[in-house]
Amino acid sequence: MNQYAGAEGLARGRNVICDLRSDTVTRPDAEMRRAMAEAEVGDDVYGEDPEVNLLEAELAERLGKEAGLFLPSGTMSNLAAMLAHCARGDEAIVGAGYHVFLHEARGASVLGGIALSPVPLTDSGGVAAEAVAGAVQPDDPHCPVSRLLCLENTTGGRAVSLAETRAAADAARDAGLAVHLDGARFFNAVTALSCTPEDLAGLADSASVCLSKGLGAPAGSVLVGPSELIDRARRLRKMLGGGMRQAGVLAAAGRHALARNVAGLADDHRRAEALAAALAALGAGSVQQATNMVFFTPEAGAGAPLSAALAELGVIVSPQAPTMRLVLHRDIDDIALDLAMDAFRAHFGG
Ligand SMILES: *Cc1c(COP(=O)(O)O)cnc(C)c1O
Q: What average pLDDT does the segment 300-326 reach?
């Protein structure tokens, strides 16, 4: 069973006007498809795809890193990074609620022999410097070797502050660990923190950035970091089956997204605020919002009938209980958002 699948079936035969399940549902628009159609391509496993080479170099430069590597997914990007940082028997400290711990089938452990040590998240979604320091293993044959700290930003929609991120990263570095940042929604974080990409990426040794979430590309993630680490990750990408040939059609979508779609993330954040305010005004449950995500917890038992009623009106939400995650993205404009808010009001009589 897949926690995200199936909901679209609720809208069977109806026009889907607003899909709030995730920002991964964004479809490439006409301009992006044109960029893909016009992409110059070559064999990227041979290093000969010009679009891929440009994407890797441009994003590395934008984040202040030496090199980049294009991978098919964020999951493979994080996995290749963790395998490049750690040897079998090493340990990575991870936030207990982070994607690398909960939603990647523990690939780093299963495929890489890397132990994962989860530490609790702070209220703001970061990990406390003391928790990191406390999780570092002593140099003792009874223990794995602590090698890496994995951070995530944004996490559950929350943009973790630069100060909190720096404190955790410093605690890791003081203990000789490297730092990887899962930046699946890196540009949402940069937008919310009003910082530069370098400000955030500079706190980590490596960072993975998804192109297929709010940025709207159909697939792909870029891992950036020091050249020597990226060289190792390139071999690992091939080993993991992620070496793609004429990948320039995808890289062109990613370059287009990075050039054209970053500014629009602020609109997604604004629309999430508007949706949160509309839901709060209904008084039908608790509401939280951060960047492009709204978390709505209706009264017990009210979620399933709500999802069904919304689907009748072409508004699709994830059937997660008790808290619904509603995600704004570039395929939801102000008109679609208004229709979604009307659908919620119609159901709750607001
Ligand atoms: C989506 C996501 C990933 C993985 O991306 P995929 O492309 O779906 O594999 C990793 N980390 C976080 C925080 C994510 O939200």
A: 93
